[in-house]
Design a protein that fits this description.
binds 2-phosphoglycolic acid
Length: about 260
């Protein structure tokens, strides 16, 4: 894996035609860099056209969710087994999934395990709500989501995953207020994630894990987060739909790599 990772979560935006157009613009703006991996996470319906059209040296693909089973009678669901030839990454446990789709830590741990079992790299999202933050529970919530999410993996498997810290209150639309969190607000949780990984899985595993920051990161704020100790990359949502913003974020990561 390269040093830095920039993952665009397109959320529920873009039909296949719009997805191809966005990829076309991104392809024009982004140059390949050996130390920065760029991952696009479109809706499932865009995965097949993008897998066909994207230059695999420049763009990796990911999904925004997975079922925890590999196959079966689960109407409307999509599994890691089904997407593994199309995508390398899967966002798991995003705060919108936790909140709107009632995903709990048990289900999220099974989804993480399903991704790993199928050779898909999970991007496990952890983060506290505004209420939890106001109660002084930020670090406690993040550590507990992390421990639960990884509970079905061994140290070797943990070493290959990605963790994204996305304080729910900082997300730009929906559940958050689009507050640009400061490094002072983000730092304790990043350190807690790193510390917990090392404590539970050993130094090598802890060092192997990529830790991303998500939550209204955009072209003008990304450098602050990318320069933070322990942060390897970003998981932007809204900014990933704007090719100029997203390309600028990739460029910043490349400058710092
Ligand atoms: P945002 O979303 O960049 O639009 O705030 C980030 C996220 O949901 O992780």
């Amino acid at each position: 894996m390269s040093k830095r990772l920039i993952v665009g979560n397109w959320k529920m935006h873009n039909n296949p035609h719009q997805a191809s157009l966005l990829l076309h613009h991104l392809n024009q703006q982004i140059v390949q860099h050996p130390d920065v991996t760029v991952v696009l996470c479109p809706p499932f319906i865009d995965l097949v056209p993008l897998a066909r059209e994207a230059d695999p040296k420049k763009f990796k693909l990911g999904v925004q969710n997975l079922n925890d089973h590999d196959e079966g009678a689960y109407t409307g669901e999509i599994s890691a087994l089904m997407i593994k030839d199309l995508a390398d990454y899967a966002i798991v446990g995003h705060s919108e999934r936790r909140r709107y789709f009632n995903e709990d830590d048990g289900l999220i741990s099974r989804k993480v395990a399903a991704a790993v079992r199928n050779g898909v790299i999970p991007i496990l999202c952890v983060g506290e709500t505004l209420h939890e933050r106001e109660e002084g529970l930020s670090t406690k919530v993040v550590v507990s989501q992390l421990e639960a999410g990884l509970s079905q993996l061994d140290a070797g498997e943990v070493a290959g995953i990605v963790v994204a810290y996305e304080p729910v209150w900082a997300i730009s639309q929906g559940l958050g207020k689009g507050h640009h969190a400061t490094p002072e607000e983000v730092g304790p949780q990043i350190r807690a994630i790193r510390g917990t990984l090392e404590e539970l899985y050993g130094e090598a595993a802890g060092m192997g894990v990529k830790v991303l920051y998500g939550g209204s990161s955009d072209a003008s704020h990304c450098r602050t987060y990318l320069e933070m100790e322990g942060v390897d990359g970003l998981l932007p949502g809204a900014a990933s739909l704007n090719f100029e913003q997203f390309a600028a974020m990739v460029k910043t990561a490349q400058e710092l790599a």
